[in-house]
Design brief:
This protein is α+β, with helices and mostly antiparallel strands. It folds into 4 domains: 82 residues, no CATH class; 98 residues, no CATH class; 96 residues, no CATH class; 38 residues, no CATH class. It contains 11 helices and 11 strands. The strands form 4 sheets. A 4-stranded mixed sheet has the order 6-7-9-8, sandwiched between helices. β8 and β9 form a beta hairpin. The N terminus is likely disordered. It binds calcium ion (CA).
Length: 392
């Protein structure tokens, strides 16, 4: 009976210590989710029956709290002996996430512009993770680079301030939202990033994701409005994101465009279908046909501004949108013919002219699927002859 009561006391003590220590230790970093193991031992003097309490961090040094025995009194119900409250402080180490050092990046040389630049908005206040300045600096630098790219390459600017909200945890992002708007949503609108008003929010998953950072800024500067026809908006966003993440704009002679030309029906663009690759291919073809990227951007911004796409297109490029579709389809058919006639019949044949790409030769490298269309791409990575080694 006495033993059972003492076991009860020990369980209660362990619970009190574990909870107390966890809250005490992490009060400063309220959004950090972690665990600490605290080892507890209760001693009972064989001679006197007095109880003593010792604790230590896992693997650390023992501390016995108060040399005096625990004062054990019967609880109100008379069912347990309980000690008075014991507060223990246990030193623990918490590892705070520190991002990789920021690589210095080269400043793109600024092209002289004939037109005065519009007054740009400000960038940016960063809220959250104040105790990890490197994390704040990193996203601020990434956002400023995206803005510079948008300004220099696309003539895009945003207006007004931007507040970047980041946190250690997804629920911390919801707290940031609450700080900004006064209430806490039930769940994140997006697991990666989202924005509302002047606030942008980046979850731990995406706060170092250049694509997410670029996407939010592009939506802010160019307008997130759905344009009609939709491919114009999708392609323009893809163009910008490719430039921001890969470091150069997409080009017509790349595999993604050639694959679209080889496998897709070019008429599906006009019918509102087609892959992201087909859409960007059409945009690149329009730029090649009519002028330079900034002409396209000027057209795009007029459509975002609410102008009818067909009339804005005719105005910008001296050709109707329907005429463009016809020209694109004719060109695409011709390109497909060239790709078909220059395709290879086997991996061995392809190896005579092509270099393996996408991995380690003999293991996972291969050739673009449209170059050897008789081979199957079993894992859908766009490469065939996976693992082929010239000479096999
Ligand atoms: Ca493959």
């Amino acid at each position: 009976m006495v033993l059972a009561m003492k076991n009860g006391i020990i369980v209660a003590l362990i619970a009190a210590i574990a909870i107390g220590s966890a809250l005490g230790a992490f009060a400063a970093t309220r959004t950090t989710q972690t665990e600490a193991n605290v080892e507890v031992r209760v001693w009972e003097s064989v001679r006197t029956g007095n109880l003593y309490l010792s604790t230590r961090p896992e693997g650390g040094e023992w501390t016995t709290h108060d040399d005096a025995p625990l004062d054990m009194n019967l609880n109100d119900a008379g069912t347990f002996y309980q000690s008075s409250f014991v507060v223990v402080t246990v030193p623990i180490e918490v590892e705070i996430e520190v991002p990789d050092p920021i690589e210095p990046t080269e400043e793109p040389t600024e092209a002289p512009t004939a037109t005065p630049e519009p007054e740009p908005g400000t960038c940016c206040e960063v809220r959250g993770m104040e105790d990890v300045p490197a994390a704040q600096d990193r996203i601020l630098t990434a956002m400023q680079e995206v803005i510079r790219l948008g300004n220099n390459t696309y003539g895009l600017t945003h207006s007004g301030p931007i507040v970047i909200n980041i946190s250690f945890t997804p629920s911390g992002v919801l707290e940031r939202y609450k700080d900004a708007f006064g209430f806490r949503p039930d769940e994140l609108p997006d697991e990666c990033s989202f924005q509302e008003g002047e606030h942008m929010f980046f979850t731990p998953l995406c706060r170092t994701d250049r694509g997410a950072i670029a996407k939010e800024w592009f939506a802010r500067a160019a307008g997130a409005a759905t344009v009609d026809p939709g491919w114009i908006g999708d392609a323009t966003l893809t163009h910008f994101l490719t430039n921001a993440t890969v470091g150069k704009p997409p080009a017509l002679d790349e595999d993604r465009s050639r694959r679209a030309l080889f496998y897709e029906e070019p008429g599906s663009l006009k019918r509102g279908r087609g892959s992201e690759e087909l859409k960007i291919t059409a945009m690149l073809y329009a730029i090649q046909r009519y002028g330079v990227t900034n002409d396209w951007l000027a057209f795009y911004q007029r459509v975002v501004g609410g102008e009818d796409a067909a009339s804005a297109f005719a105005d910008a490029f001296d050709e109707s949108l329907d005429e463009f579709y016809t020209a694109f389809e004719t060109w695409a058919d011709n390109e497909r013919l060239l790709l078909v006639t220059s395709a290879y019949g086997s991996c061995a044949e392809a190896s005579q002219a092509l270099r393996l790409q996408g991995g380690t030769p003999g293991v996972d490298a291969g050739y673009p699927d449209y170059r050897v269309p008789t081979e199957r791409d079993r894992d859908g990575d766009g490469l065939v002859c996976d693992g082929y080694l010239p000479g096999d």
